Amino acid sequence: MKRRYGKRNGQRSAAKQRQGERSEPFSGSVRDLNSQGHGVVARDDGRVFFVPGVWPGEEGVFEVTGTKGRIGFAQALKLTHPSPDRIDPPCPHHGFSGEYCGGCPWQFMSYPAQLQAKATRVTSALAGLCQDELIAPIWGSPQALGYRNRAQFKSDGKQLGYMAAGSRNIVDITVCPILNERNQQTLADLRQRLPEPAWRPARQRAWSTLHIDDDVTADTITPEQRRPFRQGNTEQNQRMIQWLEAQLAALNAPPAAVELFAGSGNFTQVMAKYCSSVLAVDSFAPAIEELAARELRGVTATCADLARRDGVSQLDAQCENATLLVLDPPRDGFAEMGALLSRAVELNTALYISCDLATYRRDAQILLASGFALESVQPVDLFPQTPHVELLSVLRR
Ligand SMILES: C[S@@+](CC[C@H](N)C(=O)[O-])C[C@H]1O[C@@H](n2cnc3c(N)ncnc32)[C@H](O)[C@@H]1O
Fold first, then answer.
1. pTM of the model
2. Total domain count, the chain
3. How many angstroms does the Cα of residue 226 sit away from the middle of ligand 1?
4. Tens of pLDDT, residues 125-153
């Protein structure tokens, strides 16, 4: 086992050890993974610790690195029973302390084992919402590396990279194997410019952010200029679009639709083909402008903050006649689901695309309480080497 922990675990500074807290190394086994993809290990006194870089079923000796409220943090000193699915991490920056990148916490596991863990997380997150048989086998990514079509680099003018594991330091990144070729080239080109005074952060900030994707080059990037959202894995996005198209094609008649968190129209372009009308909503004005400029048939693009109740209540009255809801929120989910349902009383089908299991569960419960039932769930892996998982789900009244 390569430790890649370093002398100081970042959690030490963030989470102080309490007075009187037991700190001697302890033996234990990893019983689960938390939502950040870290192992969950219980000590013999029942105290639970989160441990990066370990996998369910592994046993070892652990050292406490800190506590924060009821949560304990630890690192593995030695694994007495390592998983047979361990691999050498493909990235030189992978690790779990302030000198390593915090981006891909699962690089030490084989890709099939990662997929299995994601499928297990989905099943347990949806327990009680639907029968397990409604959850389809996860769609793995065709590429476990070299897939990522966007990134946010941090720079202080001297270094360029990502945020460190467990701290808010920048880790200088020379290569990033999860980026696609185009973005790897942009990273290499940007690094040629270091040191770059134009990337120094504004006062009181630790860094500037450089948003990159397939449509920018090192010469066209402006620090802090956010780009419209795009799904981070191009091939998996195509599958998501095909899934959506199949759902729409199976409807009896072209529905009036409301699409929330539409971005610049990744899904709207398909909806325009099958729906009589689409009210497409997003809070990011440049994305809505891009969508409006496409002049898709029957689509009204509108800017609103859907995290606010008044954002929902001020939506065009068009939403009141909608029978189809398509939504693809950020990780916060759509906490105002209840407000929408009390306005859009004609809704009979919801296609909910989610990137967060906890908020999905919360929002789906609101739909179920108002007469919807979960009909199918398709998990999709857009982000290999990380614990993230997407859900494509159909709910019907
Ligand atoms: C997961 S992305 C989905 C975008 C689009 N469906 C796509 O596939 O490209 C989430 C979108 O939610 C938007 N968003 C984030 N917070 C929002 C809010 N409070 N109100 C409305 N839209 C929001 C973002 O601008 C982003 O476009």
1. 0.94
2. 3
3. 13
4. 999 999 999 999 999 999 999 999 999 99
